[in-house]
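Recap for those who missed Tuesday's class. We walked through two folding examples back to back. For each one, the amino acid string is listed first and its predicted structure tokens come directly after. Nothing is annotated here on purpose, so try labeling regions yourself before you check the end of the notes.
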Amino acid sequence: MLDKILRLGKETAIYGLSTVVGRLLNFLIVPFYANVLLPAENGVISNVYAYIAFANVFFCYGMEPAYMRFVSSLEIGDKKQNFSVPFLSLLATSFILATGIYFNSDALASLLDFQPEQHQFIRYAGWILFFDAITVIPFASLRMEQKAKRFAVLKIFNIIINLILNLILILGFGMHAEGVFLANLLASGFTFLALSGMVLKQLTFRFPAKLYKEILKFGLPYIPAGLAGIAMQVVDRPIVKALTNDDTLGIYQLNYRLGIFMMLIVGMFDYAWRPFFLNHSKDPDAKLLFAKVFTYYMLGAMTIFLTVSFFIEDIVRINFFGRQFFPPVYWEGVEIVPWILLAYVFTGVYIVFVVGVYLEKKTKYLPLITGAGALLNIGANFVLIPLIGILGAALSTLLSYIVMAIGIYFASQKFYYVKYEWNKIIKIGVPALILFGAFLLFRPEPLSPAGFIFKIVLFVIFAAVLFAVKVIDGREMAEARKIIRRILRLSSV
């Protein structure tokens, strides 16, 4: 069993390579925006992308998970049909939606409370959504066919092109916020062109109505579920703006992005997890395997949570060539980062627990679960932001993900019971939270030698506790060493 988990780790690394490199490259744009654009401009960009995230749910309407579910079993139709049906559906609907956005950009700008001259941003957003939607199925196909290298190269290609165009359009042509959207649009268009060859090879116009009906039945619940899920991620932005101002929103958004350290891990895991549990769901030890995966996920996630939480204030104050990583105006918002990291930990918990709902085709429960989280998020934002500012927005996000993880757990257990190792989970989580509480209580001075030593001591205590309570027993560690040595020998051949 451990060899399967290690294989999942390997697949996570391979499929997540593009996520890691891409997110890190994208992360480099954060200090660039902070130093080149005004906080108000960052606030406007943040607001547009919040609406893009919501619109993306309608543009994709659950076709990616539906495609992966049905192409893995080929219950109806052949491989080409399972690719072409969702792809052609997305091509047609996304073109109609993007065209509608283009010709109604003025009205939409007014409705969404943008300045009249910012309607062009809405037009860019529509076509960004179009190209992103029609690449969903090709990228999902690469994942299901385990073409990791090509997947990674294309994802990284998109990010690099986007970064280069940002530099050219903002610094070279002085386009500011408009340059951000135009760069994204061009990068998305180039990415689709790079995928077009594989699309043509898999395309067929044989369109089984029964397959389309089943795909829609599986995928459409992802619209309300996706809207609620996106709400938990981005609805805090317009609420922060409404209750404060664009400057505060810009500070909140750029500090929120520091959650990338945990988002990378969760994103990498998500890429590998869905193909993994689909491929192993019929194994006789599948449920025990899934329980072990959850334990190892929590071990890794809480370790990263503590590490980043301890050192994030040092990172943002580091001086690069006479400039801080973040200018001082953004430092006041760093307090939200640990809570955003913890919210991403619970995002990963949700991803693990969703296996039962996914395998048993009970996606109708997703809107109820994510809807509860979204409503809590919205309500908590309006209560907490006036009391404690942007920290209230971060805590609202965390609470919503906790509720969503609990909800998906009970729904999945009802249809696909897994006996998780809760005793080990407690042994991981409780010490981590106690040490995090000690860090918040003493709050060592950033970039100070004494503070650095204090943080290292806390981390060593965490590692010592994990070994003392035997979260991973000696037999598992010995087996892991044998498997790793075998993998290394095979890799060297």
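Example two. Treat it independently of the first, because the proteins are unrelated.
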Amino acid sequence: MRRRPAEPLDVELADLPPEQRWRVWMGRVEAVIFAAATPVDRASLARLVGQSCNLDLIIADIRRELGGRPYELVAVAGGWQFRTRAAYAPILQAALGVDDQARSLSRGETLVLTAIAYLQPVTRGELGRLIGREVSRDTIGYLKAIGHIAAGPRSPEPGAPYTYVGSSQKTENKAR
């Protein structure tokens, strides 16, 4: 049995009134981000909506609607992803049986920590170029949360990205 070719996706939705069109676009963007296992980039989302659609406004509207929910829409690794709000961490730990005991660092976390200790202060982009793959914000966040690294001074390069230092380096800088 042959499969029929799929109908092309109507992204413009010209037959809908503007408010309804906006709601459909929001639904499409939210559904794809929800279903994706990894952050969804702008190019992927742009294929779901019309030319007149402003993705930044769609994202802002979705975030606004999620205001009281236990999860939020966050920018991660050049895309967007749903994440549980930090305030719900103790609830997740209790429900999933995760304890507060320290776990061993993964090989990737150890590599990032070593690179930060050697190159500090260093940006996440510089770490990625050194390691050969993008360093996730989650890895940086985890290393900060357990006290191994801290935020350093802003980098003088365009965009003034954050830099990271070993946590003892941060303490020494404050003492000066």
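Answers for example two:
The longest helix spans residues 18-35.
The first strand starts at residue 40 and ends at 41.
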